[in-house]
Amino acid sequence: MNSDTVLACDVGGTRLRVAIVGPGGSVLHKEAVATPGDDPGALGRSMRQVREKARKPIAGAVVGVPGPVDYSRGEALKLPNLPAWEGRISAARLRADVGLSVFLANDADLAALGEHRYGAGRGCQDMLYVTSSTGVGAGVIIAGQLLHGRLSLAEAGHTIIDRSTGETLEGLGSGTALTRAAGEDAAVVTSRAAHGDPDALRHFASAAEALAIGVFNLVHCFSPEVVVIGGGMSQAGELLLGPVRARLERCGPTCPASRARVVQAQGGDDVGLLGGLAYWGDCRREEARVIAATE
Description:
CATH superfamily of the largest domain: ATPase, nucleotide binding domain
Largest sheet: 5 strands, mixed
Oligomer: single chain
Shape: globular
Number of strands: 14
Number of helices: 9
Mean pLDDT: 92
Distance between the termini: 21 Å
Helix content: 25-40%
Low-confidence stretches: none
Strand order of the largest sheet: 3-2-1-4-7
CATH architecture of the largest domain: 2-Layer Sandwich
CATH topology of the largest domain: Nucleotidyltransferase, domain 5
Structural class: alpha/beta
Number of domains: 2
């Protein structure tokens, strides 16, 4: 079916969002419900309900999930926030349930694509996206395309950044880590820090420095032009971006990779849905290229 309109889905631990996204990233219709932790069938039902409201033909669907994805098989491998859904979400199952071609992707990968095509990464070829909220995820754009192998690269949060303790980037640099360290919700701590509260600033600075170390390591793996920081922690603006820039600048004179620009995400709440549209187009173009090469 020749259409640039897709069904884009964002499966979150607390919210399930489905949207009809048209050419140029226009969100034509969107619905959100609480994610039922014990009912993976809710995804297919929500997709069918939204599809029925489309006024244009729907070419297919892209579903972003909060965990590692086997891209070669179109399967979600692990869903830490939705354990009852594990083993139940795949492109093949959804295709049969919804009656559309379906691509499955990691949610941070889709957010990276959304920022690259429609947000803070527009115009650059090589971009690193890092999100810090409940967890820490990442997406990598190289030569304008999402980079991944058989599995997603978004599990950067599980890399170890403290050799002595074995603590991970997510364990020290996420909103969850901030909540645990400060004893209150990360959004509250962030707000207090922004208003100069000394205790909140101390806790936030520790989490920001941990994230900065993780970003530093990723920058030296992928040499991006731009580093886009998103997620709930990024709402602190320079309180988070400043330590990341400072960490990179320490090596700037000796390592060109450290000169990457660090910017705040611009895609907003719909960035993963917009990334779904971009991913659909990229997959279809790749399929067309492969077919042309074999003819």
